[in-house]
Amino acid sequence: MSYFINVILPIPLDKEFTYRINKTEASFIKTGMRVAVQFGKSKIYAALVTSIHQNPPLVYEAKEIEHILDEKSIVTKSQLQLWSWIASYYMCTLGEVMRAALPGAFLLESETIIQRNIDNVVDDVSLKDDEFLVYEALQHQSLLRIQEIMNIVSKKNVLPVIKRLLEKEIITVQEEIYEQYKPKVVRFVKLHPEFAIEEKLQTVLQDMKRAPKQRELLMHLFTLQAQNSKPIKVSDLLKTANSNASILKALIQKDILQEYYLQKDRIDNEGEAVENSKELNQYQLNSYHTLKEQFREKDVCLLHGVTSSGKTEVYTKFIEETLQEGKQILYLLPEIALTTQLITRLQNYFKDKLTVFHSKYSVNERVEAWYNVLNNKTKAQIIIGARSAIFLPFSNLGLIIVDEEHENTFKQYDPAPRYHARDTAIVLAKMFEAKVLLGSATPSLETYYNVKQKKYGFAELTRRFGGVLMPEINLVDIKTKYRKKEMTGHFSDTLLLQMQNTLKEGEQIILFQNRRGYSPVVECNTCGHSPQCPNCDVSLTFHHYKNQLRCHYCGYHIAMMQKCMACGSVDLNTKGFGTEQIEKELQELFPDHTIGRMDQDTTRGKHGYEKLINRFEEGEIDIMVGTQMLSKGLDFRNVSLVGVLNADNLLNFPDFRAHERSFHLMQQVAGRAGRTNKRGKVLIQTYNPFHQILQQVSVNDYLGMYKDQIEERHQYKYPPFYKIIKITGKHKDYNRVNEATNWFAKSLRNVFHDHVLGPEFPLISRIRNQYHKNIIVKIPRGQSLHKTKEAIRRIHTTFSTIKEFSGVRIIINVDPF
Ligand code: ADP
Ligand code: ZN
Ligand code: ZN
Questions:
Q1: Average pLDDT per consecutive 10 residues, the chain (817 residues; last block may be shorter)
Q2: Which residues form the Helicase C-terminal domain (predicted)?
Q3: CA quadruple 418, 423, 426, 427: dihedral positive or negative?
Q4: CA of 311 to the centre of ligand 1 (A)
C-alpha cells in the first residue's frame, strides 16, 4: 500500500502538490502539520499538509518528503476551510493565503535568511553537532541563507535543524526589524523616605507655612494615601488637589517628594483589583437588549452609535458573556498603532485574558500568540488585532467584534490575498456558529443596506454618553472670505476667532488637513514647469523642514531647487498646502502656544505616534494639526474645537466612494470635539458650502447621506447592487500594457458585454516605473459569481499563453474598495 499527502506550498501556484510518504510517516502525519519538501530542482520549502490519502498523482511521479517538521498540527481544519474560501472568493492561490496567514517563522524555505538572536546567551554545550555548526558560522557571519547552511552542515535536509534553533531562540528569521510594542509609562509620586519619621515631617510642614500651596498639595497627598495604599499617579494627584505642575515641581526639587515611573502593564499586574466594566446607562442598556434579542435570529448585528456614545462599553458586555460561556472572542480594529487608548481600556477590564496581536510584533511574539490561541490558553481568550488577526487558529470562537466597521483599512490591497477582514470575519464566524457585532458611528453603505434588507440585526445609540451634546458643526465659505480679504494664510477670520477663544479658555484644538508635506506642487511662474517624479506620474511634494522635494508614492527625493529646472527662472511658486505649511502658519499666528503635527512624517520614529498622543493628552500641546490619523477613535477630554481646513480636496476625489468617505471622515474628525460637558465646536472651511455632503455632515444626517448615496449606487450600478472585480495590467512598457489590457477587456466583453468598463488609465498611471491600466467587471445580482470568476480565470489562462503580453502582470481584485 502506498501513502500520499497533498500539501500547500507558499508560492503563487494554483494547485496543491502530492508527495509520497511511508507507512510510519502516514501514521504520524496529520493535516495542518508542516513537512519539508523539495520543489523544483533544488528548492526546499516548509509545506503544509492538507490531506493524507492513497491516490498517486496522475501526471507526475510523486517525490518523497524530506522530513516532518511538526509534532502536532499548527493549522486547524477550520483554518484550511477559511483559506479555501479566501482563495476562491478573492481569486488568489492557497499559497498566497498561506503566506499571509502564517507567522514568518513558520514559513521556512531555502531562500529564507536567518540571523543570530543577539538577545540570547547560548550555552553551546547544549547544542547538537549540526546546531553548533550553524551557531558557530553565525559568529563570523551575521546572516546566512538556508542554501548556505546546507553547505555548512553538508546535508540538504536542514529545515529540522533550523526549526530546532528557532525554538531554542538561538536564531531568528530575518525580516524588517519592527519596533516592539512598548506599554506606556505612568508617572507616580511619593513622599521622600527621609520624611517617614514623624518629627522630620512636622518640621517640614512648619517650614512650609510660607508656601501654602505646596503645603496644601502635600496634605492632599496624605489624604489620598490614607484612602488606600495604591501608588499615587501624578495626574490623579494634580486633578483631585486642584493643583498644578509647577507646585509639584517645587516639592520635588526640595526633595520632599520623589517622582518615579512604572510601566502601565506592571501596574496592572500588581494584583490590585482589575477595573470593572462600567454599568450601562439606560440607552446603552436598550441597545444591549435589542442586540441580544436580534442575535437570537441573526448572526450579524450592527450597532450604529454616534461618536462617544459608549459603544465600547456595550461590546464589553457581550465580551463578558462570551467569556462566561468559555468561548474565544476576536476584536478587530482598523489599526493597532492608532488605537492605544482603546486597547489600554480593554486591558484594564480584561487584563490576563487578553492578547494584542500585532502584525508588527516580533516573530517570536507572533508565534507565541499563535500557539496560545491554538491551545486555547487563558490569556488568548480575547484577541485584539487588526485585519490579519482573522488568520489565527481559533478553536472555539464565540464572538467577533468589528469596531469601526466602515474603515477601509480592513481591506488588504497588496499583495494577494486582497481580502476584506470584515467580510471574511463573517465567514469565519459562520464556521463556528459565532456571532458578529459590527460597530460604527458612520456605518458603510453596504452594512447599512444589509440592515435595511433585514439581513443584519440593528441597534442604535443616538446620544453621547453622559448627556454630552453632539458638536455644533458650521461651514465657512472661504470663497467669499478670500474675496473679502478675510483670510490670513489658510485661516478664515471665523476660524481664527474661534481658536483664540478656545485657547483663552485653556482648551485644545485639532486641525485637520488631508495632505502632508508643505505644499504639493511647486510651479515656475515663468514657464509653468513643475518638477515631477521620474518614476511615477505625480508632481513632487515640497517638504519645507527638510528642504526637499519628495514623491509620496515611491519615496524618491531631491533637494529643493533654487531655480526652475526647465528655464532657470528663480520665480517659483508653491500651490496647494499640506500639514507642514499649516504648522508653520500656526507658529506665526500663535507664537505663545505649542503646536503639534501628526502625520506620516512625524510619527515614523520610535513610538513617535504614542509620544505625540501622550503629549497632547498631558496638555503639553495646545493645537494639533494632522492628517486622517487624527480621525481614528481618539478620545481627548480637553479638545473643544475641531477645524477642517479644506473639505474640497476630499470631495473631489475620483472614486465612487469619495462622497461616502468624505462623510465618514468629517463626522469622525468632528467627533473628536467636545467629549466633556461643554458642547464642542467644529468649523469646516470649504469653497462649496452648499455641497450636499457638507450639508449632511453639518447636521449629522447619516440617513440623508445614506439615501442619496444608495440611490446613486443603484443608478450607476455600484455595490451593494452590483459586485465589482477590478483587473489591472502592469508593465514598464506603456504600449504593452495598452495592448494587453485591450485584449483582456475585449475577451471579457465577449462574455459580459457592457458590464465591462475600460481599460482605463487611473489618475496616476505610472508608479515606480510601472504603468497601470484598469478594467472593471460589474456583476449584477442573480449572475453567478462563481461562473463569472471561472470565465475570468479562463481568459487569464489564455492571456498567459500569448507571447506579446509576456511580462505583463495581471492583478485581480474582488470587491476592490
Ligand atoms: P464610542 O466607542 O461610542 O465612541 P466610548 O465607549 O469610547 O464611546 O465612550 C465614550 C466615553 O464615555 C468614554 O470615556 C467612556 O469611558 C465613557 N462611558 C461610556 N459608557 C459609560 C458608562 N456606562 N459609564 C461610565 N462611563 C461611560
Ligand atoms: Zn521655468
Ligand atoms: Zn515616485
A1: 92 88 94 90 85 92 89 94 96 93 80 75 79 82 78 81 85 52 63 76 79 84 76 82 82 84 48 68 96 97 94 96 96 82 86 82 77 91 94 96 94 93 98 97 96 97 90 93 92 96 93 74 79 82 83 83 86 78 92 89 71 85 88 79 88 80 90 81 93 94 96 92 95 94 96 92 84 94 93 95 92 92
A2: 559-714
A3: negative
A4: 7
Cα separation, 457 vs 452, in Å, equals: 9
Distance 315 CA to ligand 1 centre (A): 11
Q: Hey, whose CA ends up nearest to atom 19 of ligand 1?
A: 310
Nearest Cα neighbor of 161 from 190, 135, 140, 141 is 135
Report the pLDDT value the prediction gives residue 271, as an integer from 0 to 100.
38
Residue 780, pLDDT score? 94
Answer yes or no: is the C-beta of 442 below 6 A from any ligand 1 atom: no
The CA 516 to ligand 1 mean position distance, Å, reads 31
Report helix, strand or coil for 595. Answer: strand
**Of ligand 1's atoms, which has the minimum distance to the CA of residue 307?**
4
Which residue type sits at 154?
A: S
Q: Is the CB of 310 under 6 A from ligand 1?
A: yes
Q: Is the CB of 465 under 6 A from ligand 1?
A: yes
C-alpha 536 to ligand 3 mean position (Å): 4
At residue 38, φ and ψ (nearest 5 deg) are -90, 140
Mutational test site, ligand 1, from 308, 402, 463, max ligand atoms within 8 Å of CB: 308
pLDDT of 398: 97
Do strands 487-488 and 595-598 pair parallel, antiparallel, or not at all (unpaired)?
unpaired
Are the CB atoms for 357 and 380 separated by under 8 Å?
A: no
The vertex-604 CA angle with 603 and 610, nearest 5°, equals 40
The response to whether residue 278 sits with its C-beta less than 6 Å from ligand 1 reads yes
Cα–Cα dist 682/241, whole Å:
32
* Position in ligand 1 atom list of the atom nearest CA 279: 23
Any residues with CB less than 8 A from the CB of 175 and at least 6 apart, and which? 104, 363
Does the CB atom of residue 311 touch ligand 1 within 6 A? yes
| CB-based burial label for 467 (10 Å; 0-12, 13-18, 19+) | exposed
